[in-house]
Amino acid sequence: MAVLFATHVLLLILSTATTLHFSASKAARLNMTCSEKERNALLSFKHGLADPSNRLSSFMEINLDTPVGSPYRELSGEISPSLLGLKYLNHLDLSSNYFVLTPTPSFLGSLESLRYLDLSLNNLNWISRLSSLEYLDLSGSDLHKQGNWLQVLSALPSLSELHLESCQIDNLGPPKGKTNFTHLQVLDLSNNNLNQQIPSWLFNLSKTLVQLDLHSNLLQGEIPQIISSLQNIKNLDLQNNQLSGPLPDSLGQLKHLKVLDLSNNTFTCPIPSPFANLSSLRTLNLAHNRLNGTIPKSFEFLKNLQVLNLGANSLTGDVPVTLGTLSNLVTLDLSSNLLEGSIKESNFVKLFTLKELRLSWTNLFLSVNSGWAPPFQLEYVLLSSFGIGPKFPEWLKRQSSVKVLTMSKAGIADLVPSWFWNWTLQIEFLDLSNNLLSGDLSNIFLNSSVIILSSNLFKGRLPSVSANVEVLNVANNSISGTISPFLCGKPNATNKLSVLDFSNNVLSDDLGHCWVHWQALVHVNLGSNNLSGEIPNSMGYLSQLESLLLDDNRFSGYIPSTLQNCSTMKFIDMGNNQLSDTIPDWMWEMQYDRNVINPSQYLMVLRLRSNNFNGSITQNMCQLSCLIVLDLGNKSLSGSIPNCLDDMKTMAGEDDFFANPSSYSYGSDFSYNHYKETLALVPKKDELEYKDNLILVRMIDLSSNKLSGAIPSEISKLSALRFLNLSRNHLSGEIPNDMGKMKLLESLDLSLNNISGQIPQSLSDLSFLSFLNLSYHNLSGRIPTSTQLQSFEELSYTGNPELCGPPVTKNCTNKEWLRESASVGHGDGNFFGTSEFYIGMGVGFAAGFWGFCSVVFFNRTWRRAYFHYLDHLRDLIYVMIV
Ligand SMILES: *[C@@H]1O[C@H](CO)[C@@H](O)[C@H](O)[C@H]1NC(C)=O
Ligand SMILES: *[C@@H]1O[C@H](CO)[C@@H](O)[C@H](O)[C@H]1NC(C)=O
Ligand SMILES: *[C@@H]1O[C@H](CO)[C@@H](O)[C@H](O)[C@H]1NC(C)=O
Ligand SMILES: *[C@@H]1O[C@H](CO)[C@@H](O)[C@H](O)[C@H]1NC(C)=O
Ligand SMILES: *[C@@H]1O[C@H](CO)[C@@H](O)[C@H](O)[C@H]1NC(C)=O
Ligand SMILES: *[C@@H]1O[C@H](CO)[C@@H](O)[C@H](O)[C@H]1NC(C)=O
Ligand SMILES: *[C@@H]1O[C@H](CO)[C@@H](O)[C@H](O)[C@H]1NC(C)=O
Ligand SMILES: *[C@@H]1O[C@H](CO)[C@@H](O)[C@H](O)[C@H]1NC(C)=O
Ligand SMILES: *[C@@H]1O[C@H](CO)[C@@H](O)[C@H](O)[C@H]1NC(C)=O
Ligand SMILES: *[C@@H]1O[C@H](CO)[C@@H](O)[C@H](O)[C@H]1NC(C)=O
Q1: What pTM did the predictor assign?
Q2: N or C of the chain: less Cβ packing under 10 Å?
Q3: CA 203 → CA 190, 550, 828, distances in Å?
């Protein structure tokens, strides 16, 4: 008995991957007669192995449940021929251990009755002797260089399951000669590097194939019509490839298909109507393709369908009423399509088992009676950017299993009914943003992990929340009163709140002193309220804080030194307040230590504009080498601009080591929630909201101070800078000659200083410049010729009486022409040729750029997205439907 059990244990523990290979029936087969000989064989096998975690010390005491990522180290060493003693062994699973050092245990080939072998990460040839092998799992082995694997394996006539997942196979050439896969039922080639068309010989391989798994490869081209020869196939998984073209009608002949997953490819066609013949189908996933046309009405024949996912395509037309008869449907996902028209009660009549309803991002609207009693109990209700309103959907009241509800931008203009807040207590994720919902939040209690009520008409005081709440976003409403009762209400709870966004309300008074109870906070946005008083010392307890946005309030006093403890801070926005004193020195040190491998501290945004700070900007500022936004405008700073600006590596286009500046994903199983920082910036003339594109912004604004001295020439090293505003200071000297090297500059405002000299010729290289203000200086000479510099209105140059040449009206004298030609043409006097050369360069560069990057940089919608993030105004949570 002990050995019987030991055999069982051994097989299990040798697989540090999941133990799924080991089915109950196979375990039963092990329960055979066993002798002393076999016991010795096992022990001897054990002695041949290095067992650093001592997992084999006693076969009896080993924990069978060895999760992936467990601290156990892999077994390695020699596989002893003693296994030959186990002559009835028919299931051996050694996957994900490390036997590579050992020469191929060729003796395994003499275990004639072995029927189940899982020996990943090993090599191959000896396998061909295991002629009774039925199950072979080589997943994770590197077969990239084993060109003959197909030949070797095709000599196993009994093989019924072959798993070759993640084997780095990049080519499935046709087999040389005849294959013997007459019993093959399962073929898994997923997660390889197959970079070719689906080879048609695959469909000839075995008449018995039941499961073909090719997902997550690089397969291209169309699915061949001949796929219909897989007459017994039940599970066909081709997702995550690059397959394209139309879907073959012949797929409709695979009448045993239960699972058909073609998602995440680039199929461009209507859904073939023969799909309606797939009457055994349980899962049909065609999401993330480019399917067009309408949803076939004949889908009503797919009576066994449980999952219908057509999301993220270009389907048009209405949702056929006949879908409402699919009485086994559990998931219906039609989100992100061009579907339009109304969805009525009849679309749902028989959907008794529906649990997931995903209709977001369509042009559909729901048209049901107020007393509608749906036949289903939903768990996932995703109806954002979908027409529900103007009335609040009363039918939700009887849905008692909902876990996720999103109704953002659903056109609801109504008072939230009194039952609703109690109803939400059990919901995990709630998003009602961007509607015209009204109601008083003063006395409600919220318990969901994620609560997004932003951009509505809610009023009253702040709601109270349970310790479960992780995200609370009530931005952009009319909530009033003070924050203290909210913060101080539950002093001993272990609050999980990570994201708190109360921005754009009418909150007043000070911030209270209870921040100590909210130490999980990562993002705090209190911008645009009527808050006043000092920034409390207790904010220093927020040791995980990454963003602190207090802009547009009436805070006064100084920045408390306790904030130094927030050592993961990345975003600070305290603009437009009445803070005074100097900018504390420690702020310039919120910078990562170059000796730390994964630095968590690197200030990216420092925005203190429009306060009452005084003093000067010290050289220390340049330590903030990860800054993407430095906005110290409109204050009383004096002194000169430090000449170390080139140390700001991110602005200089070096050191972009961070991938995502600030994101917060909620939970692990919800892929549709993602937090992104929003910032209101004034890159040119107007204030704009930046969210998704914040990562692309590089901005320095030191305008409206009392800065003096020259613009340091180091500034021209900031080749990634896009927006530079130094206007309204007392700067003197000349414009640095090399500023044309700031190739990405889109906006340059130097107006209202005392800068003199000529406009450097290099400025004509700034191909992206779309805003320029050089007015009111003592600039003189000719404006350099380029497509860019002449495209601005004269206003950009006014107040410089000595400037000449287009676009200003003053004509240049001969002397000025010559002066320019001398500087441009390096004194050769041939100014016509030279300036044409420069013009040509400008146009040529612009044209080249247009061709090369037009999709990204000049695409109209992208441009609009980049500059006008007003659409999702202050909507901090980004909902993505998958
Ligand atoms: C193995 O055999 C024993 C005794 O014959 C029996 O009690 C046990 O249920 C069997 N185990 C399996 C998995 O069949
Ligand atoms: C296929 O299997 C038969 C026995 O079942 C054997 O005779 C033949 O050689 C095998 N063919 C190949 C190509 O291995
Ligand atoms: C499939 O097999 C048939 C006969 O078995 C053969 O005629 C045909 O050429 C094969 N097709 C491919 C693509 O290998
Ligand atoms: C689509 O497939 C690609 C690989 O081909 C993968 O990188 C990507 O994450 C997949 N996208 C989705 C939405 O599954
Ligand atoms: C289903 O298959 C039958 C023949 O097997 C065919 O006549 C019919 O047109 C098919 N249905 C659709 C919707 O293609
Ligand atoms: C679907 O898209 C393809 C390729 O763009 C186009 O040729 C075809 O006409 C479209 N079909 C429908 C029904 O819109
Ligand atoms: C909410 O539930 C509580 C207890 O479950 C109950 O006392 C209260 O009346 C309910 N409120 C509303 C508005 O239904
Ligand atoms: C709050 O939510 C948790 C689960 O997140 C749940 O267990 C608990 O019952 C809820 N509280 C109330 C009062 O409904
Ligand atoms: C709550 O916390 C305060 C201060 O941390 C402590 O004095 C008080 O005893 C705590 N109350 C309870 C009920 O634990
Ligand atoms: C500038 O020169 C053009 C001709 O080259 C002439 O028509 C124009 O009147 C001149 N403008 C001024 C302000 O002298």
Answers
A1: 0.76
A2: N
A3: 16, 63, 73
